[in-house]
Amino acid sequence: MTTSTTAPTGASAAGDRPPLLEARDISKYFGAVVALENVSLTVRAGEINCLLGDNGAGKSTLIKTLSGVHPPDDGTLAVDGQPVQFGSPRDALDAGIATVYQDLSVMPLMSISRNFFLGNEPTIGFGPLRRFDSAKAARIAREEMKNIGIDVRDTEQLVGTLSGGERQTLAIARAEYFGARVLILDEPTSALGVKESAIVLRHAISARKRGLGVIFITHNVQHALPIGDSFTILTRGRSGGTYKRGELNASELHRLMGGGEELEELQADLEILARREARGEEVPTVPLGTEASEPATAAGAAEAVDGPEVFGEDRHF
Taking the alpha carbons of 89, 94, 97, 103 in that order, is the dihedral positive or negative? Predict the structure, then answer.
């Protein structure tokens, strides 16, 4: 990792601390594909910035850029106000930026303690007699998991036997133990049930209380609104703006993410189809469109759907 000696720009004249992590006008291209273009994001200590966007919006590319997987083609990354260049994910980890990816980065057929120290195993002995210190690993893993709210009876238990929420907890506890100051959570609730999602959301709030900066990536507005201090919108690789808590409601966030109008059109279509089915009429499997709308009665005219076809509209990624 290389660090510029340029003076910090994130601090104000009043002497406020600069952001823990800042992306300034980041762009990333893969050949002719524009994955990101002039995207900016800021996370400060003790704050949760929710990164919102539909599938294909560029969220995964942005977090991989922040975590050192992809170098940006344009723009600047800054840590504590100092511009940096990450040559690898290890550089980002050394700077205190830890990412818990959607696939969790855990090994289901390995124990909890082995997964907790994956790649950073404590050892005892010297030379050819050096070996994994299982007692130390078990003690630390049990303590750290308990600190974050999970009581582990047996650290030799295979991670594959844990619930999805407990696996997320393990990955978060591991990141915090190894010095994370910025915690990037990639769609942490996408494959979880309601109760397990609540566990992960509580962990994000707990990390904020401990002074970490959290980037919470999701397309679920209902999960973002209760915990977010700020909300950054991504739409097809471009920034839709950053908003503070209370500036937007759920419907406005959906609209900015690009799904608000489509959801309204889908709801209108489904209401028409439900009425047709109730009357015993044939229900089409193709988009309704204006030519297949309800009969030209006053009620039918009000139910006609204008605009692009919901089910047939091209998706651009």
Answer: positive
